[in-house]
Each structure stands twice: as structure tokens, then as C-alpha cells.
Amino acid sequence: MFPEYRDLISRLKTEDAHFSRLFNRHNELDHRIHNMETNVTPADSATIERMKKEKLLLKDQLYGVLVKAASAA
């Protein structure tokens, strides 16, 4: 996710608690969705869809923080 911001992501994960929480939640959802889609964890399609929407919202928020931090640097 966002390879052009790899260094900035690494820095923000340690320096920005809000960014770190968003990033960790995004990764948690990614893992859970993968497990549900591969039938490791049972789930209905509505649950998977809701989680995907939350993950997309988090990705948008992460991108916003990255763009703002990159322009401030």
C-alpha cells in the first residue's frame, strides 16, 4: 500500500499515534477479510462487505495523512 510513501509510513508509524492506529486497524481488517474470503474464518457476505468498506475508509484516511505530512516536509 502506497509504495511511494514507504519511508514516510515507517516514520509516521513511530511518530504519529493516530496514523499508527489507523495503519494497524487497516492491516487487522485486511488479515481478517483474507481469512474470511479463504474460508479460514466463517463469515457472511454482508460482514465481509462491511469490513471492506471500513478498510477502504481507513485507506482514504491514511492517504490523507500521508499527503499532508509529505507536503509539510
UniProtKB/TrEMBL annotation:
Pfam families: DUF465. It comes from the Bacteria. InterPro entries: DUF465 (IPR007420), DUF465_sf (IPR038444). This is DUF465 domain-containing protein. It comes from Paraburkholderia rhynchosiae.
